[in-house]
Specification:
By secondary structure, the chain is mainly alpha-helical. It has one domain. It is built from 11 helices and no strands. Helix 4 runs parallel beside helix 7 (133-149). The chain is globular and about 50 Å long. InterPro entries: TM_pro_TauE-like, TSUP.
Length: 248
């Protein structure tokens, strides 16, 4: 039953990430519910979703453009530094502390997901020319650090950041979102592995399921109205947060 739950959660998570995001709302709770400690569950679930980010980045490779105020090299370096810092912070976070933080992180990520379109519109409307390079770098570093620590809602934060920096081409924004996600997740996974907090049998099994979900499940998900899919993900996030609060 544990195996079936993890495979199903990873498959659906891969499909959700390919279409709208929110896959970590399923992988983290599924691992915790099977008895995995929260910190290890967060790291293992992040490993499982890494191939999807890589595939997405490769798919948008021709459209990628760095946001105004940052070069491509700066984006790569900041993503790696921020992802490393977030992953290192996770390594030193006790399970008891992370267990208390998880429901709040889920609530915050769910809120960001629900308000994603408005957040991106606000960011675009607030952009008055390119941001100062130091402000752009600080924003990228902060979002990458969040992604290295907790993956939920990362895509929404990145799209909002790019809009705030003055980027307007959606394909370029999505390409950079996937590239930054892949980079910071890859370095975070390396740190998780070095710290010994990845359950590799579960991670590899879920990785295969998530990859299959990204290719096959997304075709089914695309047939659903966008609002139905979005609010279904929001409802999932709220339920998972409520369960974590209850388990405390």
């Amino acid at each position: 039953m544990d195996t079936a739950l993890l495979v199903a959660a990873a498959f659906v998570a891969g499909a959700l990430n390919a279409v709208a995001g929110g896959g970590s709302f399923l992988t983290l709770p599924a691992l915790v519910f099977t008895g995995v400690p929260p910190v290890v569950a967060n790291a293992t679930g992040t490993v499982a979703l890494l191939p999807g980010y890589m595939a997405g980045a490769w798919g948008f490779r021709e459209d990628m453009q760095p946001p105004p105020g940052l070069s491509m090299r700066a984006v790569v370096v900041l993503a790696l530094i921020g992802g490393s810092a977030g992953a290192a912070l996770l390594l030193i976070t006790p399970d008891a502390t992370f267990r208390k933080v998880v429901p709040w992180l889920l609530l915050a990520a769910t809120a960001m997901f629900a308000l994603g379109p408005r957040l991106r519109q606000w960011a675009g409307a607030s952009a008055h020319g390119p941001a100062a390079p130091w402000k752009a770098a600080l924003g990228m570093l902060a979002v990458a650090g969040y992604g290295g620590y907790f993956n939920g809602g990362l895509g929404i934060l990145l799209l909002a950041l790019f809009g705030l920096l003055g980027q307007t081409q959606l394909n370029a924004m999505n390409g950079m979102k996937n590239l930054v996600s892949a980079l910071l997740t890859a370095i975070a996974v390396a740190i998780y592995a070095a710290g010994g907090i990845v359950l590799w049998p579960q991670a590899l099994m879920m990785m295969v399921a998530a990859t299959a979900g990204g290719y096959g499940g997304a075709r089914v998900a695309r047939k659903l109205p966008a609002n139905v899919l979005r609010w279904g993900i929001v409802a999932t996030g709220l339920v998972m947060a409520a369960v974590f609060f209850w388990r405390q």
